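Before relying on records like the one below, remember that each one covers exactly one chain. Contacts with other chains, cofactors or solvent are not represented anywhere in the record.
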Amino acid sequence: MTINHVVWNPWWIPPPSDWAKDDVKTPPGPGNPLGIMKLPMQKAIMLHGTNARSSVGRPASHGCMRMYNEDAEALAWYLQTNFSDKTDPALLDKYKKYRRKSFHVKFNRRIPVDIIYDPVAVRNGELLLFPDYYNKVRGRRFDVIVNALTNNGVDRSSIDDDHVRLHAKHWPPLERRLQIHRVTHAPEAKRILAQEPVDQDLRFFH
């Protein structure tokens, strides 16, 4: 996929889909579901802002990726100032001032976009499981968890397969954070575990 332009203060045009058959066109402005900007890619897939902050990170879009307006603005402005001749900061002020008018800016090249769908992550000593909304890892969730752990330095022999299978089977409908406790023979590790009891249902390691 690629991006080759940005639309500030876009119209929202209902797509020809059943879920939008009763919707009507929405002009630019604070009530527009696309927020302050949209970055179209292909087949009606785009990055865009929103008029509903609480919907960010939830399966509220139909293939699009919605962002907080401040993040959408920062991304769009970064692309515009690096890939077009429209770099005057006064332009950004103009887009914000005239929220009910659309502004189209063409980039000087197509910018490639890679979309990564990864419902498992390891960050700051935690294993994060995100909802698998599109069932992209169904049937291989055990392997996905194990790969995430081993790719982040966890020795394969220390992983408790039974506990991994348990969480792979009962995938969370909402984000779940699990503390990663690596049990070793080191005295320091034993002291840490003694101070911080581990819930047996959340232990991934022997």
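Residues 11 and 27 are 5 Å apart (CA to CA).
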